[in-house]
Amino acid sequence: MGILLPPYYLTLFLLLFISFNDVGHRNLVFADDALIETQCHNAEVPETCIKCVKSDPQSQSADKVGIAAIVITCLSNKATTLINNMTTLALGARDKYLKLALRDCGKGFYYAKTNLTAATNRLKGKEYDQTNHLVKQALEGEVVCKMNVGALRFNFPNSVTFDMGVYEELSTAVMRIVDRFV
Ligand SMILES: *[C@@H]1O[C@H](CO)[C@@H](O)[C@H](O)[C@H]1NC(C)=O
Ligand SMILES: *[C@@H]1O[C@H](CO)[C@@H](O)[C@H](O)[C@H]1NC(C)=O
After folding, report:
1. Reduced 3-state DSSP string for 125-158
2. Is the pTM of this model over 0.85?
3. Which residue has a Cα nearest atom 4 of ligand 2?
């Protein structure tokens, strides 16, 4: 008794074995996604952070610092897009004050990129306070731009407003990630 199990016991055992194995395998494969989600968890909009990090193929082997570096790269790429957008909008603006404000926005994102390059270097040097200080400076350009252009009652095209929002979200995300390194 107990030795000659009915065949369906064997099937059941096999099924259980396969599914446990599958769960174990899945945990291995998604271990890095878990780290990304943990790091982005404290961001105001975790989805924006997660989307940015996962868009980088290197994210799967990145540690915490690597994840922060990827978010800074996303910020820098967004700043490049926004420089282009501000330049185009400035060229098309008829009002001279608006033209100036939009040009300043472009300059702001240009300086932001300089700040973000410096931030990446500070991050690599484990100078986390300085990293966040620079990310904050890079965010200020966007905040000032929004304020100045808003004061002239100009509405950005929706896609630009959206990208500026993403820029803010990624800035706060990286600052919160880096805050926890200190
Ligand atoms: C903003 O810039 C990007 C990149 O150059 C471009 O693809 C996009 O069409 C621009 N959007 C607007 C509204 O100009
Ligand atoms: C950061 O940006 C500001 C302008 O917002 C600039 O004055 C400063 O020199 C920049 N610092 C670095 C290290 O890029």
Report:
1. CCCHHHHHHHHHHHHHHHHHHHHHHHHCCCCCCH
2. no
3. 111
